[in-house]
Amino acid sequence: MRDLNDYRVFLIRKEDAARFRSVQSLDDLRQLSAGAGVNWPSVAVLRHNGLKVETAINYNSLFPMLKAKRFDYMPRGVHEAWAEEQQYGQQGLMVEPTIFLHYKVPFYFFMSRENRPMAERVERGLKLAMADGSYDKLLNGYPAFRRALTEIAARKRKVFELELPSATANGSSR
Asked: Domain spanning 7-169 has what CATH number?
């Protein structure tokens, strides 16, 4: 996924756009609260960095919660946010245009331990696709990914670097 999973933009209420433009530091952001799925890995990262988080069991519940002001922003993968804005924009939600959160969010393929040949084949195929450029061609073939890569490359947003909790930093999920 290249850096696409590592950069987060915010879904916010349109009426709060000026409020977010005034956020200049992580300390400013700590005055606001995020919304996330209860089991999302981001929850531990956000809390580890002193950010307030409200959680919901159901992903679809987060949008009405944001609209109802139960929290101030919803961090979304840079490749996810604009589709959600398109879906919820008529309800007063938008992608916040000035801030990125950045932290490592690895993307893994899981294979059965009993099928090592399949795991080796997938790894070999990914390495070959990266070497010959077909991986980038495929990645850039998806409009959401292309837009996200363009957004990252533009370097127009403030980037707040977040530290990973030690359990997450070493690749463990607990």
From this structure: 3.40.190.10
